[in-house]
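[agent] plan:
  1. take the single chain provided in the ticket
  2. run structure prediction with default settings
  3. attach structure tokens to the ticket
  4. add a short note for the reviewer (M.T.)
[agent] executing step 1
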Amino acid sequence: MSKYQRRRDKRRYEWKSAYRGKEALMLERGYLEVSPYGFYRELFPAGSLQQEPEDGKGNIIATQIRPSGKGRTRQWVIDDSLKMLDKVIGDRFGLIPPISFYGKTHTKENAHELFAMVIDVDYVGKQQLKNLLKQFGNGVQLRPTYLVSSGKGVHLYYFLQEPVQLYRNREKVLAELKEAFIRRLWNDTSSIRPDSPDITGIYQGFRCVGSQSKLGADFPVKAYKLSENRYTLEDIKASIPSCKVDLAPLYEKPRRKSTVTLEEAKELYPEWYEKRIVQGEPKQKSKKQGGTWVCNEALYEWWKRKITEEVKAGGRYFSIMALCSYGLKCGISEQKIRRDAYAFLEHLESLTEDEDNHFSRADVKDALRALKGDRKRLSTIASREWIEDNTKVTIPANKRNYRKQEVHLARARAVQDIDYPNHEWAGRPNAEQTVREWQESHPAGKKADCIRETGLSKPTVYKWWK
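[agent] step 2 finished; step 3 output follows
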């Protein structure tokens, strides 16, 4: 047996021992285990999910994850009866978000209502669990409704008094509140690795109660009830010292919904109904929303640098998916994208922190499946929000660093003089030169930004845009 294998087996043994220790601690403190059906019935009260087709309510979407080459990843629709929970209870890797969805797929476009704020704290040993329970008891931390032992960590479920409608204008506020809550709960008393909090989004799924943890079939995910409390978002914010998240947008009136019922829509718009409701396909974005614009190849090269310099262990898989999206948006051939993706394998594997979470050739192959997906839908992966949520790479919005336009363009021309010392671009029309300079200084920039910052007309920018 190699030294590496012995070290890996030792760590796994230590975490299995910690799991048993945490299990004994919860029983010692009087926190009894709750069955998967009891847990999800309380999270999604009877009548909150769909009971009959077209009753206007959402469903749970459970996902079975399968590694590349070991079966097909599937999604299951679980209605108010909860009968389909059997598909993921006992499964090797089953995920359920605390959200109800329309349609048949777990996408944010289909998200309907948020039933709980869930915080994932990883690398929690027995002592860290003791610290958390003490802090819940003395009021230092907000006591969750349930604590779920997920293997190496815990999931803290804060059930909401009323489910929150997931309108798009609320997404940013909810994400900011959750990030602040994660940073509050994940610290040097609750985790062995306090400097590596996993900032998950509001649509994140969590290992199903009753399914297997990473430690194996003998170490299932277990739920323990800590209180009868249900919370408001204001309660959660109040528990975070100096929290500056503004909850006001949550109370802004959303755009007026159509008065057409689903039953009427089925008759009036049969094709739409089949795609969006029956098949569960997300709404397609227009070109102006980032659907299919072809971008400068510099954007693709920019993302390659980001993979080398900023991507960490938690975002490796998604960084390759983003590479696929940027490549297609920039007109890069699939052959080159695949070649570039595999070229990153050695670097991404070198980022491994957990011996149970290596990055292999199979992971690259699985991520490259994105090349075969719907091109318009894939383009949404290149959005700043998606990349920041999934790869943990921060991408600041395009701006001029508060410089005046004239100063900003003068700096861009200085850069051009360095790149083209012999003034190879001389003699080109001035408008073309201006657009080119702007694009070179904004690899990820958009036409609208160029129009606004240069003062050129829309037809002119579109004419010279590359």
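[agent] step 4 note for reviewer: The CA atoms of residues 180 and 242 lie 10 Å apart.
[agent] ticket updated
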